[in-house]
Amino acid sequence: MNPLRTLLDSSIGQDHVDMHLAFLANPDGALSLGIGKTWLVQFPPNPGVYCIYLGNELVYAGETGSLKGRMRDLLDTRNHTFRRQFGSVQFGTHHSYQAASSRTKFPDEIEVLLTDFMLKQLKVKAVPVTLGRKEIEERLIDDVKPRYNIKGKRGEVLNASVL
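^ thats the sequence. predicted structure below, dont judge the formating
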């Protein structure tokens, strides 16, 4: 199964939303995270919705203006909130741990461990969506409650335990 799905209907009807929800909520066909152009070529520069899985658990849902750009961002601590949260949870007790931000990465040792862990353990699935991507993301968050999504509608904090 291709991890990408073409937009069959440009309208924002319920069938359109439900079709994408069913596809994204199921980890079947998700791709292991990768590095480089060979991996990134699988994602279009189009807007869309993506999901990150740890095993079969959907742990994060997001929407973006560029799927290709966002997939590149997953491995840069400064560019993705999920990576910072995930790194803090996975390596927060490590002896060299220092919190990261949108301006600073984790210490080098943590960055290497985090990237290695993410490449081995995480999978991603994405679907290009022109209209309704925020609605699809919000429905996934409401229905599945991924543990690393901390913001809901209009900035509402959902899961303060991962902050």
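The chain is about 35% helix and 15% strand.
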